[in-house]
């Protein structure tokens, strides 16, 4: 559920005042209509993964594959922040800047708090208080030891276990096979578009010749 330009107060307890309509609160939801999340076992820590890779060497392809293999990891990255904003209804203009990349996308929302990355600062301030598994994707930051240590300071709470995942070197065979399928699909799309364009051009030329013949009669 998304809200824009409103202040929302959430109450998961009993109703504050009597309601003019019949509605169950969260505490009163029948067992058949709700699913209780299992409690985290005591002693089990939440994992915070820091991928360490080389820029422009498939780091975000690895990340997409990671999400498919390991469900339930919240992504902390500028890419995820931009996607969250777009899903919340914020319009983002297409960037033509050479600085635009997966690691540091050009926000281009036209909103100061988004474009100057103030929203990211707020996210970084609270992320370490939320008990869940994370994958922190900062290509440059994770690669440099000093910056990686600064990123890890957000997760000093004992409930977290930080892990550096090195994604440098020869990728697994299944990963390469998947990327080859993606590249093949992209090439096929380009080829199909070129074929459709040539077909349309030939049809226009044909129609032009027919019109010319009609004029010459």
UniProtKB/TrEMBL annotation:
Chain positions covered by the region annotation Disordered: 196-217
Name under which the protein is recorded: Uncharacterized protein
Organism expressing this protein natively: Polarella glacialis (Dinoflagellate)
């Amino acid at each position: 559920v998304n809200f824009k330009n409103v202040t929302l107060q959430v109450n998961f307890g009993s109703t504050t005042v009597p309601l003019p309509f019949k509605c169950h609160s969260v505490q009163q939801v029948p067992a058949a209509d709700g699913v209780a999340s299992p409690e985290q076992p005591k002693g089990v820590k939440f994992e915070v993964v820091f991928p360490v890779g080389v820029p422009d060497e498939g780091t975000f392809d690895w990340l997409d594959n990671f999400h498919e293999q390991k469900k339930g990891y919240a992504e902390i990255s500028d890419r995820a922040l931009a996607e969250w904003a777009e899903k919340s209804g914020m319009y983002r203009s297409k960037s033509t800047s050479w600085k635009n990349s997966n690691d540091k996308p050009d926000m281009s929302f036209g909103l100061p708090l988004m474009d100057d990355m103030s929203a990211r600062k707020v996210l970084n301030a609270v992320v370490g208080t939320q008990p869940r598994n994370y994958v922190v994707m900062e290509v440059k930051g994770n690669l440099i030891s000093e910056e990686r240590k600064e990123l890890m300071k957000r997760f000093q709470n004992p409930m977290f276990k930080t892990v550096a995942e090195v994604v440098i070197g020869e990728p697994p065979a299944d990963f390469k096979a998947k990327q080859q399928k993606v590249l093949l699909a992209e090439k096929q799309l380009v080829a199909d578009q070129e074929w459709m364009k040539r077909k349309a051009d030939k049809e226009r030329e044909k129609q032009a010749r027919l019109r010319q013949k009609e004029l010459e009669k």
